Amino acid sequence: MITHNPTFFYLLSAVVVIVPLKSGGQLLPKGNRSIYGNDIGGHVLENILELGFEALNFVEQNQRFINQEISDTIPQSGAVYDFIVVGAGTAGATIAARLSEIHQVKVLLIEAGSNENLLMDIPLLAYTLQLSNDINWKYRTKSSDRYCLGMNNNRCNWPRGKVMGGSSVLNYMIATRGGAEDYDRWAEMGNEGWAYKDVLKYFKKLETINISELQSDNIYHGTQGPLFISYPPFHTRLAEAFLKAGEKLGYPLLDYNGKNMIGFSYIQSTTVNGTRMSSNKAYLHPAKNRRNLYLTRESMVRKVLIDRRTNRAIGVEFIKHNQIIHVFASKEVILCAGAIGSPQLLMLSGIGPAKHLSELEIDIVQDLPVGENLMDHLGYGGLTWTIDEPISIKTFNIINPINPYIRDFLTRRSGPLTVPNGCEALGFIDTKNLKNRDGLPDIELLFIGGGFKGDLIAPIILGLNNRIRQTWNKYNKNHGWTILPMLLKPKSRGQIRLLANDINVKPEIIANYFDNPEDVKTMIAGIRAAIRIGQTMQIFGLRLLNDTLSGCENYKYDSDDYWECAIRTLSFTIYHYSGTCKMGSRKDPTAVVDPRLKVIGIRGLRVADGSIMPEIISAHTNIPVYMIAEKLADMVKEDWKYLDKS
Fold first, then answer.
1. pLDDT by residue (tens digit) across 462-485?
2. Residues 6+ positions from 502 with CB-CB distance below 8 Å
3. CA separation (Å) from 562 to 102, 147, 288, 441?
């Protein structure tokens, strides 16, 4: 029941505030402006009472949501399934649902986390989910003297979803595919079947495009898929000004998931009716009544079981309720544990760099470069502008019950609570040639309708050190917005290594951000492009908050050296970890899986998640991971003669 769900009440506490009422009456002060641009009026007490009734209704809706979850099972040790899928995140939920369409096979889906609930699906509050130990793995990078310098102990927080739906429940719901050249490049690297002409049908298959002006574009969009992609129903005037600034600088307003990417747009998001649509909601809820799909939650897989005589994966070992359980796969084991979890499991199972595994006294099954080629998209989070008018998204204003916003969300799924973490719009640009309107961008400018500086929760989530927090806290009462330049095609590569032969010991994450000097140059160009956009926005009273960043005082402000110091200080992950089980030809010494996502040298074992990306794509990775999963499901069906290749 919901009343016994600690995560639900943890999240609920994030939206409860103490409301001081004026003595002698409950009217709001005159001139209290709303984000909608009008004065807020009405009686506070009446508003709160109405909110109370709607909150009770929301609790009932949440219970109905929970009832849509697939029932939990405790597999018998020794039980045999046709397919075992590890991880119920973006890829795992998709693959398990698609394979269970084959009525004659049994599919077991194993998830370490627990249920999703409706509070997790309120778009604006997405970043607060990272505070929870229940649904976030809470990884951190290894301490470095070259990046994450503004974080506690020089370590960046790396959240990952530990819940039904995985990181599709924690992410910011931004739906981008990347450009055709991204996937054509994969094919050129030896990955036959992964060119854009091959994967486009899967992008279309997974989606129901819920944007009216795009529904007729059947070349690039689908209308029958499980995952709804929509524009959030609310936009601030600031986001509109951002798009107009892009137009003024010569960029088109476009569908970046269509023919071309370079240009500006409101974000397309994985939302429906103003709420998050996770992989759990899109793929598993509709499969609830399939008798051949089995799910075990709160189950930690410790390793893949491999028959050493045949080098074949035969099952997995996992722990549930302190009980060790072995289950077996007659056909295949498919790892979907993400770019951190999948390489960790492979290495614990004896598949990885031989020298590294030997140091941890792990028996070597297959010597492969598991954990190498780690990539991530990085943003610079220090560009906040303030304004005089109260037209930006301030989370604590939005969740204050004397204001109409919670009521608007609960009654109509409208208003600023429908904006994914405040992310409203974006621009894709090519900093090497600012006049270019074709091909791949190298920077994304993500527009956020609220200020990082002055936000009370963001510094905690990001793990910022006290010096940075003190500077930012000066702006708690200011309204403002942020443009976050994001490096799309990093040349730097990191790695993941085990620290112990134990699934409960988190692996060592060496991000190596800005290891390649080209990444520094491109990021600085992105910062300057963002500042130019801000200067072009026609908003009265805007000011760029240009405090000299703590730790960068020895550099002249606005010099290249200053900005290099700044990006190494405020190194903001965009949570797009990828590449650690690289896909490539079986002749490629850097590959872990082949183009059919089979682990090289091991029969009956595949990996399907962001870890297989040979190069990171020019986009947020969630939609591409759905595509990878959809394609993998078809490849499995083909290989086992359940699907005609034609």
1. 999 999 999 999 999 999 999 999
2. 348
3. 58, 14, 54, 24
- Residue 359 corresponds to which tokens in the numbers above? 């140091």
d(CA 100, CA 88): 14
CA distances from 480 to 12, 17, 59, 549 (A): 26, 22, 33, 18
Beta bridge partners of 83: 107, 332
Give the model's pLDDT for residue 32: 61
Q: What angle do CA 378, 384, 389 make, to 5 degrees?
A: 145
Phi/psi of residue 347, nearest 5 degrees: -65, -40
CA-nearest of 610, 614, 608 to 629 is 608
Q: Which residue do the tokens 């963001």 mark?
A: 458
Residue bearing tokens 């249920």: 115
Provide the percentage of residues in the chain whose pLDDT is more than 90: 88
Give the global pTM.
0.95
Active site residues: 576
Q: Which residue's entry shows tokens 């929760």?
A: 457
Per-residue pLDDT at 209: 98
- Which residues of the chain register pLDDT less than 70? 1-32, 39-44, 46, 644-646
The full DSSP string for 192-234 is: TT-SHHHHHHHHHHHEEE--GGGTT-TTT--BSSSEEEB--S-
pLDDT of residue 40: 63
pLDDT at 644: 67
For residue 369, give every residue at least 6 positions away whose Cβ sits within 8 Å of its Cβ, in sequence order, or none.
Answer: 352, 353, 582, 589, 590, 591, 592
10 Å CB burial of residue 502 (0-12, 13-18, 19+) is: exposed
- As given in the structure block, the two tokens for residue 169 are 């429940």
Structure tokens at 485: 């330049």
> What's at 295, amino acid-wise?
L
In whole angstroms, what is the distance from residue 336 CA to residue 109 CA?
10
